[in-house]
Amino acid sequence: MAKRRAIVKIKPKKYAEGDIVKVSFMVQHPMETGMAKDKESGEIKPAHYIEDITFSFEGEPFTKMKVWESISADPFFSVQYKVEKKGKITVDYIDNLGEKNSKSKKVKPKQVQTEKA
Amino acid sequence: MERRNFIKSIMATSAAVVTVPTMVFAENNKTAENNETKVEVKKVTVKGPNDLPYEDAVKAIVGDKELKDSDKVKLTVPEIAENGAVVPVKVAVESPMTEKEHVKSIHILNTKNANSRCADIMLTTKNAEAKFASRVKLSESQDVVAIVAFSDGTFMKAGKSVKVTIGGCG
């Protein structure tokens, strides 16, 4: 299986503790519906799509998603998250063929008052 | 009496003249309809792995409870999508997201795809804002519906229609 590139993004780039940020997750995935035909061979392509996605902070899940094949190829999801402390946001996903993967991003809140000039 | 008979005969013939062509037209229409339905049946023969019509999907989520349209749920979808394979969908729900009162889950559905479910998002209080964005496939022009389940057991809904110029499901 080809490696799937995935990104976890946090926006805005600079944030302090207590701020609400947007956490978005993108993957390279074909998301085949199991209904489309191959253009060259004319055979129906087997279904291949992501089923479960979990957003977690330091092992504690804060958002779970169930996804079906009606989501576009190379899917993108975004949710809000309130930053409380330093740590790591991890996103795990499983597809219907049992392919598991995860991607994480460090959370580094900056306190505006203690920042040195 | 002659006059009466004459009028009667005219009436009869005119009636016949009017009805006969309509009958012919009706038959033509019937045959045309039959042809169309045959073509549709051929299209539907390809089945997805977990097909579910829209009404059944709504029942599975809501059950017997009421489902109301609400201003609290804001769904942003393009009116016309040039490419049905990539339709951006955004949902924002007005909610304080505290322990007492928060959004439990957001369900994104469509009305005419083979599988009407797109995504279920289970939120917690740590999200602080009930917002979600993603991209969806639509096979034809149809409605996109967001059903929101609140922590007190009520359900709200918002729907918008999308015109699709090129279908996105093969």
UniProtKB/TrEMBL annotation, chain A:
Ranges for domain Sulphur oxidation protein SoxZ: 11-105
UniProt-recorded name of the protein: Sulfur oxidation protein SoxZ
Pfam family, one: SoxZ
Lineage of source species: Bacteria, Pseudomonadati, Campylobacterota, Epsilonproteobacteria, Campylobacterales
From TrEMBL, chain B:
InterPro entries linked: SoxY, SoxY_sf, Sulphur_oxidation_SoxY
Every Ig-like SoxY domain range: 59-169
Pfam family, one: SoxY
Signal sequence, start to end: 1-26
Domain of life: Bacteria
Keywords: Signal
Entries under NCBIfam families matching the protein: SoxY_true_GGCGG (TIGR04488)
Name of the protein this chain belongs to: Sulfur oxidation protein SoxY
Species annotation: uncultured Sulfurovum sp
